[in-house]
Amino acid sequence: MSRTYTIKVRDRATGKTHTLKVPEDRYILHTAEKQGVELPFSCRNGACTACAVRVLSGEIYQPEAIGLSPDLRQQGYALLCVSYPRSDLEVETQDEDEVYELQFGRYFAKGKVKAGLPLDEE
Ligand code: FES
């Protein structure tokens, strides 16, 4: 039996807060969709940051979030499409392109961004 956690997602675009029940072995974004909650996403495999959120409290596990720099992970950002809950969580959606700009706005010009790794479909 896997454990199930309660995830609160505040959607800054709509001002709504969604409450989800997510098993520890399921992606949060995927589970949200199944529960009829629409959240931003695009690639679904941890590469684009469209689904990025700020973690306000709780613990998240995102080993496949290759699109997110270690710095930003440490600052509490997470990619919901490849995130599993490890406790009850409170997260809020980013401002549009916030994570993309934090990550690439600064580095792109300096050529520090490496090409993405090949991604396997699940
Ligand atoms: S949808 Fe692209 S990183 Fe999550």
TrEMBL record:
Name used for this protein in its record: Ferredoxin (2Fe-2S)
A GO molecular function held by the record: 2 iron, 2 sulfur cluster binding
Name of the top EC class for this enzyme: oxidoreductase
Enzyme Commission number(s) from the entry: 1.18.1.3
Keyword Nuclease: no
Keyword Iron-sulfur (UniProt): yes
Cofactor(s) the protein requires to work: [2Fe-2S] cluster
Limits of the 2Fe-2S ferredoxin-type domain: 5-97
Family indicated by similarity: Belongs to the 2Fe2S plant-type ferredoxin family.
InterPro entries associated with the record: 2Fe-2S_ferredoxin-like_sf, 2Fe-2S_ferredoxin-type, 2Fe2S_fd_BS, Beta-grasp_dom_sf, Fd_pln
Key words of the record: 2Fe-2S, Electron transport, Iron, Iron-sulfur, Metal-binding, Oxidoreductase, Transport
Biological processes annotated in GO: electron transport chain
One Pfam family this sequence matches: Fer2
